[in-house]
Amino acid sequence: MSDPDRPGGRGFQDDRDKCGVCGGDGRLENAWGQVAKCPSCHGTGRRMEDTGFRDVTKTKEAHHRQTNKQGQPEPKQTWPTTPDGIKLATQIKESSAIAEDVKARVTREIIEHEVSHGTCTQTFLKKTRKALRLPPPPPR
Q1: Residue 12 has what pLDDT?
Q2: Are 46 and 19 contacting, i.e. CB atoms less than 8 angstroms apart?
Q3: SS3 of 65, please?
Q4: 17 pLDDT exceeds 90?
Q5: pLDDT in tens, 42-84
Q6: Domain edges within the chain
Q7: pTM of the entire predicted model
Q8: What is the C-alpha end-to-end distance of the chain, expressed in Å?
Q9: C-alpha radius of gyration, the chain, whole number
Q10: Nearest-angstrom CA–CA distance, 92 and 111
Q11: Of 65, 87, 118, 129, which cross-links 134 as Cys (Cβ 3.0–4.6 Å)?
């Protein structure tokens, strides 16, 4: 049988095994009498094993997804999608007075305007036509 008073016995707790924060008591008491579980040993009174590294990685599945590698990126839009944007882009494309690089730049501007506003606003259409000296569209 084991003797609790001898080293290695069941009831013996060596000073090396005692928690350095609570002194082996497992609880802490403040000046106002509040008692709390020791944050170091979590109430056991024994020193926690020092693993040297505390793993704080997230374990939820959502944290392991690689968001930037989920399939192919969406293809870039090359032509306007709204009816007014399509009319303006077609009118620009068919114009012989406008240089090719300007046509490409303005078409990109139309696409960007549609993406940011959801549609081509009348103000945008008028300003673009005026800047490129295009005739007004035929009445609806």
Answers
A1: 46
A2: yes
A3: coil
A4: no
A5: 888 888 776 677 666 666 666 666 666 656 777 888 999 999 9
A6: 14-47, 83-132
A7: 0.48
A8: 103
A9: 37
A10: 13
A11: 129
For 99-110, b where at least 16 C-beta lie within 10 A, e where not — what string?
Answer: eeeebeebbeeb
State pLDDT tens for residues 90-104.
Answer: 999 999 999 999 999
What single DSSP character describes residue 31? T
Q: What is the mean pLDDT of the chain?
A: 81
**89 within 8 A of 98, measured Cβ to Cβ:** no
Give the angle 18-20-26 at the CA atoms, nearest 5°: 65
DSSP state of 5: T
Q: What's the CA gap between 93 and 95, in Å, rounded?
A: 6
As given in the structure block, the two tokens for residue 3 are: 């003797």
**Amino acid symbol at 29:** E
Give the Cα separation of 133 and 51 in Å (integer).
Answer: 75
